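Provenance

Sequences were taken from public entries as deposited. Structures were produced by running a predictor on each sequence independently, with no templates supplied. The record for Galactose mutarotase from Saccharopolyspora shandongensis is shown for reference.
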Amino acid sequence: MATDLELRNDHLAVRLTPDRGADITALTDARTGAQLLYRTPWADSAQPGPWAPESRQSWQALYQGGWQLVCPNAGDASNVAGGTWGFHGEACLLRWRVAESTSDSAVLSVRLSQAPLRIRRRVELAGPVLRVADEFHNESPDPVSVTIVHHPAFGAPLVTPGTRIAAGAQKLAVDPTSGMEPGATLAWPVPALSTLPPGGPGQAALAYFEDFTEHWVSITSADGDLGVAMAWNGDVLPNAWLWFEGRATPGLPWYRTEYVFAAEPASTIPAGGVEHARATGGNLVEIGPRESVATEVCLAVHHDPRPVTGTDLTGRITFEGDDR
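Predicted structure for Galactose mutarotase:
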């Protein structure tokens, strides 16, 4: 059984869990000591378990927070040829093999059991920048259609009432199940979500960033002392899910106790799973016989209170007032 991996430089510290999906379970800013990723109250008792098709409640019970890779299915369990792909897939539940590890980088891999995919992941730190690069190789002589979503969730002190959200998207499509503006299609920025609300009844959202001019999202703390800016390759991940829980949802699993925001680079919308996407003409990642696709997500940490106007895969952030 592999132990957690700790990557560190002068700016950031990262913890990965090879035994559970190669999740990034901690991302710490060295300057402030702040933990940037959300952590569930039950994280210490959430133990890895077997994949199960009826898996929404099981997945949530095991959810520790942090950053997951969601593949081959994202969202509701889906019927596929020969069986079922569970809620949020299996990549984030399986044990990954550590191929390489240094003080500031690691390479891991896994072969899925429910899809013919071998995934190779490289995680590395460079200054205040975390890069996560994944390659998905189809080992089958037949094509395969999958969803790929990165699922980083952020909590206090970065995410609190008044936290500012910016994005390179022009539109926000709200899921019909959302507690805020259900079913609406809105021009971004949306006041109710570009500055996070106080929290309370009705203040939860599931929505989808669309029509990106550049593929990035930023999150800046209410006091402006801390922020992250995230960019990704839009050819495979053309959209991003937005998930916000503002102490609003009664019952399992949140019980109106949690305040968390996630911006999730995504291949596919809405969050209904592969089966729903196929039935409604949604975008899926098509990987040809013995071919590969790749994703890259770059997250940069900053301490500039100015509004973010963009970032890219080098980790360079632009702010309001910068020379163009």
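Residues 5-311 form a domain with the Beta-galactosidase; Chain A, domain 5 fold (CATH 2.70.98.10).
The helical segments are 56-62, 191-194, 273-280.
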